Amino acid sequence: MSVEHTAVHKTRGKEIMEGKNDKDFISTLRDHGLQVTYQRLAIYQTLYSSREHPSAEVVYQQVKKRFAMISLGTVYKTLEKFYDVGLIEKVGPITEVARYDANTGPHHHMVCLQCHSIIDIDCSVDEPKISVAGYDGFHVLRQQVVLHGYCPKCKAAFINSGS
Amino acid sequence: MSVEHTAVHKTRGKEIMEGKNDKDFISTLRDHGLQVTYQRLAIYQTLYSSREHPSAEVVYQQVKKRFAMISLGTVYKTLEKFYDVGLIEKVGPITEVARYDANTGPHHHMVCLQCHSIIDIDCSVDEPKISVAGYDGFHVLRQQVVLHGYCPKCKAAFINSGS
DNA sequence: ATTCTTGCAAACGGTTTGCACATAC
DNA sequence: GTATGTGCAAACCGTTTGCAAGAAT
Known about the structure:
With 163 residues, chain A is of the alpha+beta class. Helix content of chain A is 37%, strand content 18%.
């Protein structure tokens, strides 16, 4: 694959992108063990140049401005692949589906990535002081701390299966 | 509406439920400004007696054992209503859809309930020490702190519209 | 040449919605 | 009697999947 188009984006992208050219982006992809395609480059650049935490749909709309032929399915697959290899972060559904809890006292949750069980954590243990100097403009109604990992049962299963 | 069935559930529910009878449940619903129906009572009791953070579907399956005729739609509507009035908690999608972020450095997020914008928070400010004594069996891979509230822009809009 | 990726369209699954009927108050 | 909740089924919408054609290595 050859590189012809420029890496320069619009608006806020420009500030962030400055100093990072196509070659850098390509290297980044390769460093993560990814094959390089125009689509991936465009998707990564779009995401990299945004602070909006865009959804797959939004990334798709952005990328389409440069690659009219790209498909939404590719964007989904690509973002998920990026996420898998640790190239990008994902803010989103912490559980596959909504889960409810009659315990309304202050507490947080541990979610098992394997069996999807949710374990309550006494809030007392953390009480993260996120009164956050500098973010005062934001009116915080509630905060949620979620730990992702493996519950004792699933951890044991991994060890036994020879992790 | 009259109360005939017993409040006793199975397994772990029993321990939790003990000391809370139908009248208590009814009062709880009323206290939250809710009309009382068999369905709501059953849904609330089911949730109250569980530590599994069940999904709507699971609640539905449970409740159906007592009320064969209940519909899944009702469970959805009811749980959401419970959540609205603060009777129950919801662990689930913190954003409507998955959102991505090329910033992989340690940081957390503020999500605006109104405009759905997401603002990064420097991790340095909180660093919640959730090494959590007593939960050692759980192997934590990553933790996510999410604040819900209103961003400066939306907060201002509320004030102007006469909150 | 082989393997991985793309595009398209259909399928999926959780959730929401509309409406007629039933129930709570 | 009036407002609210229920049941059912269809619609929604974000996401995933299968597969044939295309591109990367």
